[in-house]
Write a structure and sequence with these properties.
Blueprint (H helix, E strand, L loop, with lengths): L1 H25 L7 E7 L2 E10 L6 E9 L6 E8 L2 E9 L6 E8 L5 E9 L6 E7 L1
Antiparallel strand pairs: 1-2, 2-3, 3-6, 4-5, 4-7, 7-8
Length: 134
């Protein structure tokens, strides 16, 4: 009986650290989906880069969302991937004050850096964020 308890305890002590290492490895922000949030004028932004598994070697879904800005206000959103502009759009906020911009991008060699910038079309405070994915 004591030997069974000792074997079970030993197995649990060995398995617990391994489970913790596996959890840390899968949650690493350098290799997982990454989201940044912050204030943007009267509202907020959410800038997100999601890794996608595709047949062509994978890529990213890049999403920039403005929430609770003034309904009917016009905003310019600029997205860059590794320093190159991949989107520049001016959109009008809907009735809820939301604007969404989504772009699919290929995975490039080395770390991928994504930048987001948004500002009212008539001028005003800007918001910006950068995400680097390995």
């Amino acid at each position: 009986m004591n030997r069974t308890v000792a074997m079970t305890t030993a197995a649990a002590l060995i398995a617990a650290p391994l489970a913790a290492v596996a959890t840390v490895a899968t949650a690493s922000p350098a290799s997982a989906d990454v989201t940044k949030r912050g204030a943007c004028g009267p509202g907020t932004y959410e800038f997100q880069v999601d890794r996608e598994d595709r047949e062509d070697g994978g890529g990213f879904e890049v999403s920039a969302d403005l929430d609770r800005v003034t309904p009917g206000s016009r905003w310019t959103v600029v997205l860059k991937h590794d320093g190159k502009r991949i989107a520049k759009v001016t959109r009008t906020a809907d009735r809820e004050g939301d604007i969404d911009v989504d772009v699919d991008r290929p995975n490039t060699r080395g770390p991928d850096q994504f930048r987001f910038k948004a500002f009212p079309a008539g001028g005003g405070p800007k918001c910006a964020a950068t995400i680097t994915v390995r």
